[in-house]
Amino acid sequence: MRELHTRLAKLFPLGELTEQRTNLAFVSVPQEHLRSLLLHLRDREGFTHLVLLTAVDWLEEGQFQLTYLLSNRGKACDLGVRVMIPRDGATMQSIHELWPTAATYQRELREMFGIAFPGSPRVEEDFILEGWRDIPPYRRDFDTLKFAVENYSQRPGRETHDPATHMKQQLYPGET
Amino acid sequence: MTQHAPFFTPDRSQYPTQKDDGTLDIDLTSGKYLKLWQGPNHPGITGNMSVELTVCGDEVVEGKTHVGYLHRGFEKLMERRTFIQCFPIVCRICVPEPDFNEYCYAAAVEELAGIQSPVRSDWIRTLILEMGRINSYLMYLGGQAGALGLGIIGQWTTYVRDLMLDRFEELTGARIYHMFILPGGVRDGLPEGFDARMEETLREIERTLKDVYDVMFCNAVFKKRTVGLAVIDPALLESYGVTGPNARAAGVAKDVRKDQPYLVYPELNFEPVIGHDSDIYTRADVRRRDLLVSVDLIRQILDKMPRSGPLMATVPNVLHWKIPRGETYIRGECSRGEYGYYLVTDGSGYPRRVNVRGPSYTHAMALLERLIVNINIADVASLMVSLHTYPPEIER
Fold it and tell me: What is the CATH number of the domain that holds A83?
């Protein structure tokens, strides 16, 4: 993975390589270089399989982390490409032309995180939620508990507990 | 060999034209086309999803997959749960083969927390995963045959699956959601006399599979309706993220158990099953043969596994368990393809993000929508089952 990183670093402004295992590493790249890096990895380095595309919400830092995980079956290794984009007005270029399946991931990310992917096929169509008007639900600032209390009535007599506190009381009642 | 006439001859003059952006110009008021919803409640649908079909006569000209009927927000739910509280949740993401969720989640937590699971627990984990694979394939065979009117196959496979569920019950205490593979190891060892009862079950499965082969795979109707239908071009495998038996039926031996071996697979002797014709029949046959490989693997595991030793590594107090900032991806080869967990931690007692990569995410969406064009309405169910899709993986 170190060799690969050295080769790539000559062509792209890459961040530090995080070697998670011998066959899995993560690297950061600026948003504008993502497409060309992915194309290079796919066509020149044998990373032909897009394993997943997902987002992580770093609310405190005001950023979304997009992770493009690519796999090279011949060399049995995976490379996760991280892209940090600002949370406000989050927009990312689409990669559906490189992998048609990416369109599905991008549709989900648009719906669940509110990240725009201009040009991605059917990206504006509802994917899982229908007629959702609130903030995108997988963002960290979406409060699921508040939403549930406001929108759903509870069965009379039902008790609810905070899971962590309840478990602590059940297992270690004396502990503070 | 006698050439049979096709089931129907579509009238190509009725076909819609393609617009510049690649979408079809379908004018529903023209009377040429009909919108047809297969699902969410339909005998020919796999689980709670639906396919919006646009048909021209009997032929599908466009299909769109719709999901969202059982979205429970697992990934979001887990962000509010401690690491150990996520453990009983994850198995619910996939009903017919829940154990991969448990394994991938446990292995991801172990890796980020720097815990090494004991060797004996790895053998038991492998055993559980292979037992789950058999269950999933048995359900698939029943579904594939049922989609083409062979209802009896489902009754036979459900019977032997029930025997395997008995083995699960005596091993884990549960039949469907086992909650057995937890971060650090497994909950228990094998009960006394388990090997003998498992051997009986495996023999019954082999006997049933012989019958299934005779009645299903040698059946003229089954062959006529599946051979040559819905072929996945091997050139599409990478661009469409096709993995598992769907890829192996196209002649590519993609199998995580061999490509990136995990647990104790390096110590087991087996070869990935492949086919070459890539049609519905081949995909079914690959799964039938793969099922027999799993039967053999279970025998090997029971033969080689250590019978004593620890089952759990030392894990921190689960109430105060904090994992340093990091991210990892753990994958396994489930009965439908590559199953994986992407886990991100931020140093707190809760996961920052859990993302589940289910094989159906690519198979039931982009791939299905491509393969469904130009097939007969009556074959839609058969095609969908042949991709072995489970909607909960799509909308975790």
Answer: 3.30.460.80
Q: Mean pLDDT over residues B2-8, rounded?
A: 54
Quote the DSSP letter at residue B36: E
B146: Cβ–Cβ under 8 A, 6 or more apart, which residues? Answer: B153, B154
Residue A118's domain comprises 2-128
Query: Radius of gyration over alpha carbons of chain A, in Å?
Result: 20
Please state, in angstroms and rounded to a whole number, the distance separating the CA atoms of residues B63 and A128. 17
The tokens of B310 are what? 């620890």
Interface-testing mutation among B49, B111, B242, B355, with chain A (most A C-beta atoms within 10 A)? B355
ipTM of the complex model: 0.91
> C-alpha angle B364/B294/B190, rounded to 5°?
115
Find residues 255-274 of chain B whose CB sits inside 8 Å of chain A: 259-260
Q: What pLDDT band is residue A176 in, cutting at 50, 70 and 90?
A: low
State how far the alpha carbon of B182 is from the alpha carbons of A10, B89, B117, B187, in Å: 43, 11, 10, 7
- Tokens 């995980």 label which residue? A69
Q: Quick one: pLDDT band at residue B56, thresholds 50, 70, 90? A: confident
Facing residues of B343 across strands? B328, B354
Residue A25 has pLDDT above 70, yes or no: yes
Give the Å distances, CA to CA, from B35 to B45, B198, B239, B267, B371: 17, 49, 29, 53, 18
Give, as one character, the DSSP assignment of residue B377: G
Of B254, B349, B395, the CB nearest to A128: B395
- Give the closest of B76, B111, B238 to A48, CB-based: B238
Residues in A closer than 8 angstroms to B361, CB to CB, are: 101, 104-105
Residue in this structure with the two tokens 């887990």, named with its chain if needed: B78
Q: Is A152 part of any domain?
A: no
In this predicted structure, what is the pLDDT of residue B13?
66
Q: What is the pLDDT of residues A116-151, one digit of tens each?
A: 999 888 888 888 888 888 899 999 999 988 888 888
Q: In DSSP terms, which residues pair with B330 in a beta bridge? A: B341
Using CB atoms within 10 Å of the CB of residue B321, give its burial: 0 to 12 exposed, 13 to 18 middle, 19+ buried: middle
C-alpha separations of B373 from A22, B28, B58, B367, B378 in Å: 42, 17, 12, 11, 13
In this prediction the pTM is 0.92
Rg of the Cα atoms in chain B: 22
- Whether residue A134 lies inside any domain: the answer is no
Q: Bridge-partner residues for B181, per DSSP?
A: B186
List strand residue ranges (DSSP E) for chain B, in order. Answer: 17-18, 24-25, 34-38, 50-56, 59-66, 181-182, 185-186, 326-334, 337-345, 351-357
What domains, with CATH codes, occur in chain B? 77-357 (1.10.645.10)
Within-domain flag for A137: no
Q: How many domains does chain A have?
A: 1
C-alpha to C-alpha distances, A28 to A21, A36, A64, A115, nearest whole angstrom: 17, 14, 13, 19
Mean pLDDT of A138-167: 85
What integer is the mean pLDDT of B153-171? 94
User: φ and ψ at B130, to 5 degrees?
Assistant: -70, -35
On whether any CB of chain B is under 8 Å from the CB of A168, the answer is: yes
CB contact under 8 Å between A26 and B67, yes or no, is no
**Residue A67: inside a domain, yes or no?**
yes
Answer whether B111 sits within 8 Å of A21, measured CB to CB.
yes
